[in-house]
Amino acid sequence: MTERMTGAQALVRALEHVGVDTVFGIPGGAILPAYDPLYDSTKVRHVLVRHEQGAGHAAEGYAQATGRVGVCMATSGPGATNLVTPIADAYMDSVPIVAITGQVASKAIGTDAFQEADISGITMPITKHNFLITDPLDIPRTIMEAFHIASTGRPGPVLVDISKDALQADTTFSWPPIMQLPGYRPVTRPHSKQIREAAKLIAEARRPILYVGGGVHKAGASAELLQLAELTHIPVVTTLMARGTFPDSHPQHMGMPGMHGSVSAVGALQKSDLIIGLGVRFDDRVTGDLSSFAPYAKIVHADIDPAEISKNRHADVPIVGDCKEVITDLLNVIQTSGQQGDYADWWTALNSYKQTYPLGYETFEDGTLAPQYVMERLSAIAGPDTYYVAGVGQHQMWASQFIGYENPGTFINSGGLGTMGFAVPAAMGAKMGRPDSTVWAIDGDGCFQMTNQELATCALEGVPVKIAIINNGNLGMVRQWQTLFYDQRYSNTDLQTTRRIPDFVKLAEAYGCVGLRCERPEDVDAVIKKAMEINDVPVVVDFVVHQDAMVWPMVAAGTSNDDIKIARDMAPKWENEDE
Fold first, then answer.
1. Which one from 43, 114, 230, 529 is the annotated catalytic residue?
2. E strand or H helix that includes residue 30
3. Is 115 tagged catalytic?
4. pLDDT tens-digit series, residues 426-463
5. Which of 241, 477, 550, 554 is catalytic?
6. Catalytic site residue 477?
7. Is 282 assigned a catalytic role?
8. Catalytic residue list contains 131
9. Do the record's keywords include DNA repair (predicted)?
Protein backbone atom coordinates (compact mmCIF):
# COMPACT_ATOMS: atom_id res chain seq x y z
CA MET A 1 0.00 0.00 0.00
CA THR A 2 1.42 3.37 -1.01
CA GLU A 3 0.74 6.74 0.61
CA ARG A 4 1.54 10.31 -0.35
CA MET A 5 3.67 12.26 2.12
CA THR A 6 6.76 14.46 2.32
CA GLY A 7 10.27 13.05 2.32
CA ALA A 8 10.54 14.09 5.98
CA GLN A 9 7.41 12.14 6.88
CA ALA A 10 8.77 9.17 4.92
CA LEU A 11 11.99 9.37 6.97
CA VAL A 12 10.14 9.28 10.29
CA ARG A 13 7.83 6.52 9.10
CA ALA A 14 10.81 4.45 7.92
CA LEU A 15 12.53 4.89 11.30
CA GLU A 16 9.37 3.65 13.01
CA HIS A 17 9.21 0.61 10.69
CA VAL A 18 12.82 -0.43 11.39
CA GLY A 19 12.05 -0.36 15.11
CA VAL A 20 13.75 2.84 16.27
CA ASP A 21 12.50 4.01 19.67
CA THR A 22 15.15 6.62 20.55
CA VAL A 23 16.98 9.26 18.49
CA PHE A 24 19.64 11.56 19.94
CA GLY A 25 20.06 14.86 18.15
CA ILE A 26 19.87 18.64 17.74
CA PRO A 27 17.73 20.40 15.10
CA GLY A 28 19.07 22.98 12.67
CA GLY A 29 18.22 24.54 9.33
CA ALA A 30 18.85 21.69 6.88
CA ILE A 31 17.40 18.92 9.06
CA LEU A 32 14.49 21.05 10.32
CA PRO A 33 11.90 19.56 7.90
CA ALA A 34 12.51 16.14 9.54
CA TYR A 35 11.89 17.52 13.02
CA ASP A 36 8.35 18.61 12.18
CA PRO A 37 6.87 15.09 11.64
CA LEU A 38 9.10 13.79 14.46
CA TYR A 39 7.03 16.05 16.74
CA ASP A 40 3.97 13.87 16.00
CA SER A 41 5.62 10.45 16.29
CA THR A 42 4.34 8.34 19.19
CA LYS A 43 6.92 5.60 18.58
CA VAL A 44 10.19 7.54 18.33
CA ARG A 45 11.46 9.48 21.33
CA HIS A 46 13.82 12.30 20.42
CA VAL A 47 16.41 13.24 23.03
CA LEU A 48 17.62 16.83 22.71
CA VAL A 49 21.33 16.68 23.53
CA ARG A 50 23.53 19.71 24.18
CA HIS A 51 26.24 18.92 21.60
CA GLU A 52 26.19 16.70 18.52
CA GLN A 53 29.22 14.78 19.79
CA GLY A 54 27.03 13.86 22.76
CA ALA A 55 24.35 12.59 20.35
CA GLY A 56 26.83 10.29 18.62
CA HIS A 57 28.32 8.85 21.82
CA ALA A 58 24.83 8.43 23.31
CA ALA A 59 23.84 6.42 20.20
CA GLU A 60 26.98 4.31 20.74
CA GLY A 61 26.19 3.71 24.41
CA TYR A 62 22.61 2.76 23.53
CA ALA A 63 23.87 0.35 20.85
CA GLN A 64 26.52 -1.24 23.08
CA ALA A 65 24.12 -1.75 25.99
CA THR A 66 21.23 -3.13 23.91
CA GLY A 67 22.83 -4.74 20.86
CA ARG A 68 20.45 -2.70 18.70
CA VAL A 69 21.33 0.07 16.24
CA GLY A 70 21.84 3.47 17.88
CA VAL A 71 20.56 6.55 16.03
CA CYS A 72 21.77 10.15 16.06
CA MET A 73 20.65 13.14 14.01
CA ALA A 74 22.23 16.49 13.18
CA THR A 75 21.95 19.35 10.75
CA SER A 76 24.34 20.15 7.91
CA GLY A 77 27.81 21.70 8.16
CA PRO A 78 29.00 22.06 11.77
CA GLY A 79 26.19 19.86 13.08
CA ALA A 80 27.34 17.03 10.84
CA THR A 81 31.07 17.59 11.44
CA ASN A 82 30.48 17.44 15.20
CA LEU A 83 29.40 13.83 14.61
CA VAL A 84 32.73 12.89 13.00
CA THR A 85 34.42 11.90 16.29
CA PRO A 86 31.67 9.53 17.48
CA ILE A 87 31.36 8.08 13.96
CA ALA A 88 35.12 7.37 13.92
CA ASP A 89 34.82 5.94 17.43
CA ALA A 90 31.99 3.61 16.36
CA TYR A 91 33.99 2.53 13.30
CA MET A 92 37.04 1.59 15.36
CA ASP A 93 34.99 -0.37 17.93
CA SER A 94 32.50 -1.93 15.46
CA VAL A 95 29.46 -0.25 17.01
CA PRO A 96 26.24 -0.27 14.94
CA ILE A 97 24.95 3.31 14.64
CA VAL A 98 23.10 5.21 11.93
CA ALA A 99 23.87 8.93 11.73
CA ILE A 100 21.25 10.95 9.86
CA THR A 101 22.31 14.42 8.71
CA GLY A 102 20.57 17.20 6.87
CA GLN A 103 22.27 18.63 3.79
CA VAL A 104 21.77 21.88 1.89
CA ALA A 105 19.32 21.80 -1.03
CA SER A 106 20.53 19.60 -3.91
CA LYS A 107 20.96 22.56 -6.29
CA ALA A 108 23.24 24.26 -3.74
CA ILE A 109 25.50 21.23 -3.14
CA GLY A 110 29.03 22.10 -4.20
CA THR A 111 28.49 25.88 -4.12
CA ASP A 112 29.89 26.43 -0.60
CA ALA A 113 26.37 27.30 0.54
CA PHE A 114 25.70 28.40 4.11
CA GLN A 115 26.37 25.50 6.51
CA GLU A 116 27.45 23.17 3.71
CA ALA A 117 30.01 20.43 4.35
CA ASP A 118 30.65 17.34 2.26
CA ILE A 119 29.91 15.03 5.17
CA SER A 120 29.72 11.92 2.99
CA GLY A 121 33.19 12.69 1.66
CA ILE A 122 34.51 13.56 5.11
CA THR A 123 33.23 10.33 6.69
CA MET A 124 33.93 7.94 3.82
CA PRO A 125 37.06 6.44 5.51
CA ILE A 126 35.29 6.05 8.89
CA THR A 127 31.91 4.58 7.93
CA LYS A 128 30.93 1.10 6.83
CA HIS A 129 28.94 2.82 4.12
CA ASN A 130 27.35 6.18 3.56
CA PHE A 131 24.54 7.60 1.44
CA LEU A 132 23.65 11.01 -0.01
CA ILE A 133 19.93 11.23 -0.81
CA THR A 134 18.60 13.92 -3.15
CA ASP A 135 15.48 12.05 -4.33
CA PRO A 136 12.74 11.64 -1.69
CA LEU A 137 11.66 8.36 -3.29
CA ASP A 138 14.96 6.81 -2.10
CA ILE A 139 14.44 7.61 1.60
CA PRO A 140 12.58 4.45 2.81
CA ARG A 141 14.85 2.03 0.94
CA THR A 142 18.02 3.82 2.05
CA ILE A 143 16.98 3.79 5.72
CA MET A 144 16.28 0.05 5.51
CA GLU A 145 19.65 -0.54 3.82
CA ALA A 146 21.49 1.63 6.34
CA PHE A 147 20.13 -0.33 9.31
CA HIS A 148 20.84 -3.64 7.58
CA ILE A 149 24.46 -2.69 6.83
CA ALA A 150 25.07 -1.24 10.30
CA SER A 151 23.84 -4.33 12.13
CA THR A 152 25.01 -7.26 9.97
CA GLY A 153 28.46 -8.69 9.30
CA ARG A 154 31.00 -6.69 11.24
CA PRO A 155 28.80 -3.98 12.81
CA GLY A 156 29.65 -0.34 12.26
CA PRO A 157 28.45 3.20 11.57
CA VAL A 158 26.44 4.19 8.50
CA LEU A 159 25.79 7.81 7.51
CA VAL A 160 22.64 8.94 5.70
CA ASP A 161 22.89 12.52 4.40
CA ILE A 162 19.61 13.93 3.03
CA SER A 163 19.26 17.18 1.10
CA LYS A 164 16.75 19.67 2.47
CA ASP A 165 14.66 19.72 -0.72
CA ALA A 166 14.37 15.90 -0.61
CA LEU A 167 12.92 16.22 2.89
CA GLN A 168 10.49 18.93 1.80
CA ALA A 169 9.29 17.37 -1.47
CA ASP A 170 6.18 15.22 -1.84
CA THR A 171 6.73 11.55 -2.53
CA THR A 172 5.08 8.15 -2.34
CA PHE A 173 5.81 5.87 0.59
CA SER A 174 5.51 2.09 0.56
CA TRP A 175 6.84 -0.51 2.98
CA PRO A 176 8.76 -2.74 2.93
CA PRO A 177 11.02 -1.46 0.16
CA ILE A 178 13.28 -3.78 -1.82
CA MET A 179 16.93 -3.39 -0.77
CA GLN A 180 19.52 -2.93 -3.51
CA LEU A 181 22.82 -4.16 -2.04
CA PRO A 182 24.26 -6.46 -4.71
CA GLY A 183 27.85 -6.34 -3.43
CA TYR A 184 27.09 -6.71 0.27
CA ARG A 185 27.19 -10.35 1.35
CA PRO A 186 28.96 -10.82 4.70
CA VAL A 187 30.18 -14.37 5.30
CA THR A 188 28.97 -15.80 8.60
CA ARG A 189 29.43 -19.56 8.08
CA PRO A 190 33.05 -20.67 8.55
CA HIS A 191 34.67 -23.15 6.18
CA SER A 192 34.58 -26.66 7.66
CA LYS A 193 38.11 -27.48 6.47
CA GLN A 194 39.52 -24.51 8.40
CA ILE A 195 37.60 -25.57 11.51
CA ARG A 196 39.12 -29.05 11.29
CA GLU A 197 42.60 -27.55 10.84
CA ALA A 198 42.09 -25.38 13.93
CA ALA A 199 40.90 -28.37 15.98
CA LYS A 200 43.98 -30.33 14.86
CA LEU A 201 46.33 -27.55 16.04
CA ILE A 202 44.48 -27.34 19.36
CA ALA A 203 44.96 -31.08 19.94
CA GLU A 204 48.69 -30.86 19.09
CA ALA A 205 49.44 -27.72 21.13
CA ARG A 206 51.14 -27.79 24.53
CA ARG A 207 50.69 -24.10 25.41
CA PRO A 208 47.51 -22.81 23.73
CA ILE A 209 45.64 -19.63 24.64
CA LEU A 210 42.18 -18.32 23.72
CA TYR A 211 42.69 -14.65 22.79
CA VAL A 212 39.16 -13.21 22.96
CA GLY A 213 38.09 -9.85 21.52
CA GLY A 214 34.99 -7.72 21.16
CA GLY A 215 33.84 -9.77 18.17
CA VAL A 216 32.85 -12.63 20.50
CA HIS A 217 30.54 -10.36 22.48
CA LYS A 218 29.16 -8.78 19.31
CA ALA A 219 28.33 -12.28 18.03
CA GLY A 220 26.50 -13.07 21.29
CA ALA A 221 28.84 -16.01 21.78
CA SER A 222 29.89 -15.76 25.43
CA ALA A 223 28.01 -18.95 26.40
CA GLU A 224 29.65 -20.88 23.56
CA LEU A 225 33.06 -19.46 24.55
CA LEU A 226 32.59 -20.68 28.13
CA GLN A 227 31.68 -24.13 26.78
CA LEU A 228 34.76 -24.23 24.52
CA ALA A 229 37.10 -23.10 27.30
CA GLU A 230 35.76 -25.65 29.79
CA LEU A 231 35.74 -28.46 27.23
CA THR A 232 39.35 -27.87 26.16
CA HIS A 233 40.67 -26.46 29.48
CA ILE A 234 42.55 -23.78 27.52
CA PRO A 235 43.36 -20.51 29.36
CA VAL A 236 41.54 -17.35 28.26
CA VAL A 237 42.53 -13.70 27.93
CA THR A 238 39.93 -10.98 27.25
CA THR A 239 40.81 -7.70 25.56
CA LEU A 240 39.58 -4.30 26.70
CA MET A 241 36.60 -4.64 24.34
CA ALA A 242 35.78 -8.14 25.61
CA ARG A 243 35.83 -7.59 29.37
CA GLY A 244 33.02 -9.68 30.88
CA THR A 245 32.63 -11.86 27.78
CA PHE A 246 34.38 -14.53 29.85
CA PRO A 247 33.82 -14.23 33.63
CA ASP A 248 36.70 -12.66 35.56
CA SER A 249 36.12 -15.05 38.44
CA HIS A 250 36.59 -18.16 36.27
CA PRO A 251 39.82 -20.03 37.15
CA GLN A 252 40.77 -20.23 33.46
CA HIS A 253 40.72 -16.44 33.06
CA MET A 254 44.23 -14.98 32.86
CA GLY A 255 43.14 -11.34 32.69
CA MET A 256 43.42 -8.60 30.09
CA PRO A 257 46.40 -8.61 27.71
CA GLY A 258 48.21 -5.59 26.32
CA MET A 259 49.93 -2.36 27.29
CA HIS A 260 48.30 -2.31 30.74
CA GLY A 261 47.39 -5.98 30.90
CA SER A 262 48.10 -8.42 33.70
CA VAL A 263 51.44 -10.24 33.79
CA SER A 264 49.60 -13.57 33.53
CA ALA A 265 47.74 -12.49 30.36
CA VAL A 266 50.76 -10.90 28.66
CA GLY A 267 52.97 -13.83 29.65
CA ALA A 268 50.41 -16.36 28.42
CA LEU A 269 50.43 -14.80 24.94
CA GLN A 270 54.22 -14.42 24.82
CA LYS A 271 54.96 -17.99 25.90
CA SER A 272 52.13 -19.72 24.00
CA ASP A 273 52.68 -22.10 21.10
CA LEU A 274 49.15 -21.59 19.73
CA ILE A 275 46.97 -18.48 19.83
CA ILE A 276 43.30 -18.98 18.98
CA GLY A 277 42.25 -15.41 18.17
CA LEU A 278 38.47 -14.96 18.22
CA GLY A 279 37.02 -11.63 17.06
CA VAL A 280 40.30 -9.78 17.61
CA ARG A 281 42.44 -7.39 15.57
CA PHE A 282 45.96 -8.15 16.87
CA ASP A 283 46.19 -4.39 17.41
CA ASP A 284 49.31 -2.59 18.61
CA ARG A 285 48.05 -2.10 22.17
CA VAL A 286 47.92 -5.89 22.61
CA THR A 287 50.93 -6.99 20.57
CA GLY A 288 53.46 -4.30 21.53
CA ASP A 289 56.39 -4.54 19.12
CA LEU A 290 54.87 -6.84 16.51
CA SER A 291 58.16 -8.51 15.54
CA SER A 292 58.62 -9.87 19.07
CA PHE A 293 54.97 -10.73 19.78
CA ALA A 294 54.30 -14.38 20.71
CA PRO A 295 57.42 -15.67 18.90
CA TYR A 296 56.67 -19.39 19.42
CA ALA A 297 52.98 -19.32 18.50
CA LYS A 298 51.07 -20.58 15.53
CA ILE A 299 47.96 -18.49 14.88
CA VAL A 300 44.34 -19.49 14.38
CA HIS A 301 42.49 -16.25 13.56
CA ALA A 302 38.69 -16.17 13.30
CA ASP A 303 36.92 -12.94 12.39
CA ILE A 304 33.82 -11.93 10.45
CA ASP A 305 35.82 -9.29 8.60
CA PRO A 306 38.25 -10.89 6.12
CA ALA A 307 40.24 -7.63 6.02
CA GLU A 308 41.38 -8.19 9.61
CA ILE A 309 42.81 -11.67 9.07
CA SER A 310 46.62 -11.64 8.63
CA LYS A 311 46.53 -7.82 8.59
CA ASN A 312 49.02 -7.54 11.46
CA ARG A 313 50.10 -11.11 12.16
CA HIS A 314 50.05 -13.95 9.63
CA ALA A 315 47.35 -16.52 10.37
CA ASP A 316 48.34 -20.18 9.97
CA VAL A 317 44.64 -21.06 9.97
CA PRO A 318 42.46 -18.18 8.77
CA ILE A 319 38.74 -18.54 9.50
CA VAL A 320 36.23 -16.04 8.11
CA GLY A 321 32.91 -16.24 9.93
CA ASP A 322 30.69 -15.13 12.77
CA CYS A 323 32.33 -16.04 16.10
CA LYS A 324 29.21 -17.78 17.39
CA GLU A 325 29.19 -20.10 14.38
CA VAL A 326 32.97 -20.57 14.49
CA ILE A 327 32.97 -21.56 18.17
CA THR A 328 29.91 -23.82 17.75
CA ASP A 329 31.55 -25.65 14.85
CA LEU A 330 34.84 -25.95 16.76
CA LEU A 331 32.98 -27.44 19.72
CA ASN A 332 31.31 -30.02 17.49
CA VAL A 333 34.58 -31.12 15.87
CA ILE A 334 36.47 -31.30 19.18
CA GLN A 335 33.66 -33.23 20.89
CA THR A 336 33.37 -35.66 17.96
CA SER A 337 37.12 -36.31 17.74
CA GLY A 338 37.51 -36.72 21.48
CA GLN A 339 41.09 -35.45 21.16
CA GLN A 340 42.33 -33.62 24.22
CA GLY A 341 45.58 -31.71 24.60
CA ASP A 342 47.92 -32.14 27.57
CA TYR A 343 48.34 -28.72 29.19
CA ALA A 344 49.45 -29.67 32.73
CA ASP A 345 52.89 -28.02 32.55
CA TRP A 346 51.35 -24.97 30.89
CA TRP A 347 48.87 -24.49 33.71
CA THR A 348 51.66 -24.84 36.29
CA ALA A 349 53.55 -21.97 34.62
CA LEU A 350 50.46 -19.76 34.19
CA ASN A 351 49.22 -20.26 37.75
CA SER A 352 52.70 -19.33 38.91
CA TYR A 353 52.49 -16.02 36.97
CA LYS A 354 49.04 -15.38 38.40
CA GLN A 355 50.07 -16.00 42.01
CA THR A 356 53.44 -14.25 41.83
CA TYR A 357 52.29 -11.12 39.96
CA PRO A 358 48.70 -10.27 40.90
CA LEU A 359 47.40 -6.79 40.14
CA GLY A 360 48.27 -4.39 42.94
CA TYR A 361 48.67 -0.71 43.65
CA GLU A 362 50.37 1.83 45.83
CA THR A 363 48.67 3.35 48.86
CA PHE A 364 49.72 6.79 50.04
CA GLU A 365 51.02 7.56 53.54
CA ASP A 366 49.44 11.02 53.56
CA GLY A 367 45.99 9.39 53.49
CA THR A 368 45.29 10.48 49.91
CA LEU A 369 42.83 8.34 48.00
CA ALA A 370 44.18 5.63 45.68
CA PRO A 371 41.97 5.51 42.55
CA GLN A 372 42.32 1.73 42.34
CA TYR A 373 40.74 1.42 45.80
CA VAL A 374 37.75 3.44 44.55
CA MET A 375 37.33 0.92 41.69
CA GLU A 376 37.57 -2.07 44.03
CA ARG A 377 34.90 -0.67 46.34
CA LEU A 378 32.66 0.43 43.46
CA SER A 379 32.89 -3.10 42.05
CA ALA A 380 32.02 -4.63 45.43
CA ILE A 381 29.10 -2.30 46.16
CA ALA A 382 27.57 -1.77 42.70
CA GLY A 383 28.17 -5.38 41.68
CA PRO A 384 28.54 -7.28 38.40
CA ASP A 385 25.04 -6.53 37.07
CA THR A 386 25.91 -2.84 36.78
CA TYR A 387 26.93 -1.32 33.44
CA TYR A 388 30.25 0.53 33.74
CA VAL A 389 31.00 3.14 31.05
CA ALA A 390 34.53 4.57 31.01
CA GLY A 391 36.16 7.55 29.37
CA VAL A 392 39.77 7.29 28.20
CA GLY A 393 43.01 7.33 30.15
CA GLN A 394 44.20 6.08 33.51
CA HIS A 395 40.67 5.79 34.93
CA GLN A 396 39.70 3.57 31.96
CA MET A 397 42.57 1.18 32.70
CA TRP A 398 41.85 1.11 36.44
CA ALA A 399 38.18 0.43 35.65
CA SER A 400 39.22 -2.51 33.47
CA GLN A 401 41.73 -3.85 36.01
CA PHE A 402 39.98 -3.43 39.37
CA ILE A 403 36.28 -3.90 38.61
CA GLY A 404 35.15 -7.52 38.35
CA TYR A 405 33.24 -8.24 35.13
CA GLU A 406 31.08 -11.35 35.10
CA ASN A 407 28.56 -10.53 32.37
CA PRO A 408 29.10 -9.79 28.67
CA GLY A 409 28.73 -6.17 27.56
CA THR A 410 28.84 -4.65 31.04
CA PHE A 411 32.05 -2.68 30.37
CA ILE A 412 31.51 -0.04 27.69
CA ASN A 413 34.43 2.16 26.69
CA SER A 414 36.21 3.79 23.77
CA GLY A 415 38.86 1.22 22.91
CA GLY A 416 40.14 1.79 19.39
CA LEU A 417 39.90 5.56 19.01
CA GLY A 418 40.48 6.43 22.67
CA THR A 419 37.98 9.29 22.72
CA MET A 420 38.08 11.66 25.68
CA GLY A 421 34.54 12.79 26.51
CA PHE A 422 33.00 9.41 25.67
CA ALA A 423 31.77 8.39 29.13
CA VAL A 424 29.00 10.83 30.11
CA PRO A 425 26.96 10.76 26.86
CA ALA A 426 27.60 7.03 26.31
CA ALA A 427 26.40 6.31 29.85
CA MET A 428 23.27 8.37 29.12
CA GLY A 429 22.62 6.28 26.00
CA ALA A 430 23.29 3.03 27.87
CA LYS A 431 20.89 4.00 30.66
CA MET A 432 18.18 4.90 28.16
CA GLY A 433 18.68 1.54 26.47
CA ARG A 434 18.73 -0.30 29.82
CA PRO A 435 16.50 1.83 32.09
CA ASP A 436 16.17 -0.91 34.73
CA SER A 437 19.94 -1.35 35.12
CA THR A 438 22.36 0.70 37.21
CA VAL A 439 24.79 2.62 35.00
CA TRP A 440 28.00 4.11 36.39
CA ALA A 441 30.13 6.38 34.19
CA ILE A 442 33.76 6.35 35.26
CA ASP A 443 35.44 9.51 34.03
CA GLY A 444 38.60 11.50 34.48
CA ASP A 445 38.54 15.19 35.38
CA GLY A 446 39.94 15.91 31.90
CA CYS A 447 37.44 13.76 29.99
CA PHE A 448 34.52 14.98 32.08
CA GLN A 449 35.12 18.59 31.06
CA MET A 450 34.72 17.72 27.38
CA THR A 451 31.10 16.55 27.42
CA ASN A 452 29.68 17.23 30.90
CA GLN A 453 27.01 19.48 29.35
CA GLU A 454 25.07 16.26 28.71
CA LEU A 455 24.30 16.24 32.45
CA ALA A 456 21.66 18.82 31.53
CA THR A 457 20.15 16.32 29.09
CA CYS A 458 20.24 13.56 31.73
CA ALA A 459 18.58 15.78 34.35
CA LEU A 460 15.85 17.08 32.03
CA GLU A 461 15.14 13.74 30.34
CA GLY A 462 15.04 11.84 33.65
CA VAL A 463 18.09 9.64 33.03
CA PRO A 464 19.56 8.92 36.50
CA VAL A 465 23.11 7.91 35.58
CA LYS A 466 25.83 7.92 38.23
CA ILE A 467 29.18 9.54 37.44
CA ALA A 468 32.42 8.77 39.29
CA ILE A 469 35.00 11.44 38.47
CA ILE A 470 38.51 10.17 39.22
CA ASN A 471 39.92 13.61 39.88
CA ASN A 472 43.72 13.73 40.06
CA GLY A 473 43.91 17.35 38.90
CA ASN A 474 45.77 16.36 35.74
CA LEU A 475 45.53 14.78 32.33
CA GLY A 476 46.63 11.64 34.13
CA MET A 477 47.81 9.27 31.42
CA VAL A 478 49.76 12.02 29.66
CA ARG A 479 51.29 13.01 33.01
CA GLN A 480 52.28 9.36 33.60
CA TRP A 481 54.16 9.33 30.28
CA GLN A 482 55.78 12.67 31.15
CA THR A 483 56.91 11.15 34.46
CA LEU A 484 58.35 8.06 32.81
CA PHE A 485 59.65 9.32 29.47
CA TYR A 486 59.98 13.12 29.63
CA ASP A 487 62.03 13.68 32.83
CA GLN A 488 58.97 14.84 34.79
CA ARG A 489 58.57 17.92 32.59
CA TYR A 490 54.85 18.41 33.09
CA SER A 491 54.02 20.47 30.03
CA ASN A 492 50.33 21.45 29.93
CA THR A 493 48.87 18.54 31.87
CA ASP A 494 47.94 20.32 35.14
CA LEU A 495 44.18 20.99 35.05
CA GLN A 496 44.26 22.99 38.31
CA THR A 497 41.12 21.23 39.53
CA THR A 498 42.78 21.03 42.96
CA ARG A 499 41.83 24.73 43.13
CA ARG A 500 38.23 23.60 42.52
CA ILE A 501 38.15 25.18 39.05
CA PRO A 502 35.60 23.99 38.31
CA ASP A 503 34.04 22.78 41.53
CA PHE A 504 32.50 19.55 40.25
CA VAL A 505 29.97 19.36 43.10
CA LYS A 506 28.67 22.87 42.38
CA LEU A 507 28.72 22.14 38.64
CA ALA A 508 26.62 19.01 39.19
CA GLU A 509 24.14 20.99 41.26
CA ALA A 510 23.99 23.73 38.61
CA TYR A 511 22.96 21.02 36.12
CA GLY A 512 20.16 19.78 38.39
CA CYS A 513 22.12 16.74 39.61
CA VAL A 514 23.24 15.64 43.06
CA GLY A 515 26.92 16.44 43.69
CA LEU A 516 29.03 14.51 46.22
CA ARG A 517 32.73 14.62 47.07
CA CYS A 518 35.03 11.99 48.56
CA GLU A 519 38.66 12.64 49.55
CA ARG A 520 39.49 9.94 52.12
CA PRO A 521 39.60 6.14 51.88
CA GLU A 522 37.43 5.72 54.97
CA ASP A 523 34.58 7.64 53.29
CA VAL A 524 34.52 5.74 49.99
CA ASP A 525 31.94 3.09 50.92
CA ALA A 526 29.50 5.55 52.46
CA VAL A 527 29.66 7.90 49.46
CA ILE A 528 29.16 5.09 46.93
CA LYS A 529 26.23 3.72 48.94
CA LYS A 530 24.66 7.17 49.12
CA ALA A 531 25.00 7.54 45.33
CA MET A 532 23.44 4.08 44.87
CA GLU A 533 20.41 5.11 46.93
CA ILE A 534 19.60 8.10 44.67
CA ASN A 535 17.68 6.87 41.64
CA ASP A 536 15.52 9.80 40.57
CA VAL A 537 18.23 12.24 39.41
CA PRO A 538 21.80 11.92 38.09
CA VAL A 539 24.55 11.77 40.72
CA VAL A 540 28.09 13.10 40.27
CA VAL A 541 30.78 11.96 42.73
CA ASP A 542 34.08 13.86 42.77
CA PHE A 543 36.66 11.33 43.99
CA VAL A 544 39.76 13.43 44.70
CA VAL A 545 42.69 11.03 44.23
CA HIS A 546 46.48 11.27 44.41
CA GLN A 547 47.97 13.03 41.39
CA ASP A 548 50.87 10.59 41.05
CA ALA A 549 48.91 7.32 41.02
CA MET A 550 50.03 5.28 38.02
CA VAL A 551 48.70 2.45 35.91
CA TRP A 552 50.77 -0.74 36.26
CA PRO A 553 51.67 -3.16 34.72
CA MET A 554 52.85 -1.32 31.62
CA VAL A 555 54.42 -2.18 28.29
CA ALA A 556 55.86 1.07 26.92
CA ALA A 557 54.61 1.96 23.43
CA GLY A 558 56.64 0.31 20.67
CA THR A 559 58.51 -2.03 23.01
CA SER A 560 58.25 -5.80 23.34
CA ASN A 561 55.70 -7.45 25.62
CA ASP A 562 58.72 -9.26 27.10
CA ASP A 563 59.71 -5.90 28.60
CA ILE A 564 56.55 -5.52 30.69
CA LYS A 565 57.08 -3.61 33.95
CA ILE A 566 55.06 -4.34 37.09
CA ALA A 567 56.13 -1.04 38.63
CA ARG A 568 58.75 1.59 37.86
CA ASP A 569 62.06 -0.17 37.10
CA MET A 570 60.56 -3.50 38.21
CA ALA A 571 60.03 -6.38 35.78
CA PRO A 572 58.68 -9.90 36.32
CA LYS A 573 61.08 -12.84 36.21
CA TRP A 574 59.82 -15.27 33.61
CA GLU A 575 60.20 -18.83 34.90
CA ASN A 576 59.09 -22.28 33.75
CA GLU A 577 60.44 -21.59 30.28
CA ASP A 578 60.92 -24.71 28.22
CA GLU A 579 61.71 -23.16 24.85
1. 114
2. none
3. yes
4. 999 999 999 999 999 999 999 999 999 999 999 999 99
5. 477
6. yes
7. no
8. no
9. no
